[in-house]
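[User]
Um, tokens okay?
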Amino acid sequence: MKIIITSTGNELSSKLDLRFGRAKYFCLYDENTRKTKFYINEQVNAQGGAGRKAAEKMVELGVKKVISGDFGPNAKDLLNKFQIQMVVIQDDNNTVKDIISRLNA
């Protein structure tokens, strides 16, 4: 399964970004291969619609789960429509590596 973790940077040591649509990066983690790939969020400075455009990116990437701190209503609607699970973590002290370790536990 492909999972996105919102991230403040493009390294495993980067912290979880609590904003979905305005996250700096998306870390794509593939549970089957255990590989990661970081994508810069091109919508981080968008005037509006960042959450919806980020959700469209998740569909494009074939993601089945997104881990972030919060999801706006437009993003939630689109993610629900495509049956993409949303996991909310409120603690921004977690690194991407911490979250991946928990996924593999």
